[in-house]
Amino acid sequence: MDLNPRKWPLTTLSGVLVILLYCVFTLISWAFNPEPFSPWTDYLSRLGNFNHSPFGAYFYNLGCMLTGVALIPFFLGLSKWHSEERLSKILLIGGQIIGMLSAIALIMIGIFSEDQGSPHMTASSTFFLLNFIVLILVNVALLRHPKFLKAIAIYSLSINILSLGFELAVGGPLVEWFTVFGSLGFVALLSFNTLTLGESLDSS
Questions:
Q1: Integer Cα distance of 15 and 184 in angstroms
Q2: CA-based radius of gyration for the chain
Q3: Cβ(52)–Cβ(33) under 8 Å?
Q4: CB count, 10 Å around CB of 153?
Q5: What angle do CA 65, 153, 175 make, to 5 degrees?
Q6: From the CB of residue 197, how many other CB atoms can be counted at a distance below 10 Å?
Q7: Which candidate, 192, 203, 184, places its Cα nearest to that of 8?
Q8: Is the CB of residue 139 less than 8 Å from the CB of residue 149?
Q9: From first to last of its 204 residues, what are the pLDDT tens digits of the chain?
């Protein structure tokens, strides 16, 4: 049985999985959360806190781990974008490596749930720092690629700037929600662009 009948690129296939896994498991854990929960008052990791949601926490933490696993082939698949331009290739490889490290940090967020305190905070801080760097490196690396949609870079760098600005000016859970789902938007856009890159190569 062909598990990829449409022959989607690795980044596209795993990108779809990243979005589905995180969103589905987050919604399930939210459904089992016994307390009021909103972006204005609660960090996403609260869904994985066993002290607040003894049953629903299993789903959120598993979702983080599976999403992190799916992110690894997402970044590996970006090798399809490697070009002959030395600097761009170096930046992209750096983005891929840091992206896979951010995926491991996300897995650690699921392993060390919010109720475990310091280990969770370390994993969470590491993930968001690496995510910030990845959005810069990958988009700067691809800017000169003729098939790259420049609007993706504008979107992604805007996510970084706004996240940093909101954190300094406001702070709180809403910044985390904005950053996480904004980054999922980057995954969606790059997954689509990689699909069109594959089609253009096939037709050339």
A1: 9
A2: 17
A3: yes
A4: 20
A5: 50
A6: 20
A7: 192
A8: no
A9: 455 656 789 999 999 999 999 999 999 999 999 988 999 999 999 999 999 999 999 999 999 999 999 999 999 999 999 988 999 999 999 999 999 999 999 999 999 999 999 999 999 999 999 999 999 999 999 999 999 999 999 999 999 999 999 888 888 999 999 999 999 999 999 999 999 986 544 333
Q: Which of 155, 153, 131, 133 is nearest to 144 (CA)?
A: 153
Query: Domain spans of the chain?
Result: 10-195
In one-letter notation, the amino acid at residue 83 is: S
The DSSP code sequence of 69-86 is HHHHHHHHGGGGG--S-H
Q: Which two tokens stand for residue 12?
A: 């596209």
In the numeric block, which tokens belong to residue 55? 């049953």
Residue 204 is given by DSSP the state: -
Q: Rounded CA gap, 58 and 110, in Å?
A: 9
Count CB atoms within 10 A of the CB of residue 36: 7
Q: What are phi and psi for residue 40, nearest 5 degrees?
A: -80, -20
Output the CA torsion sign for 96, 100, 106, 108. negative
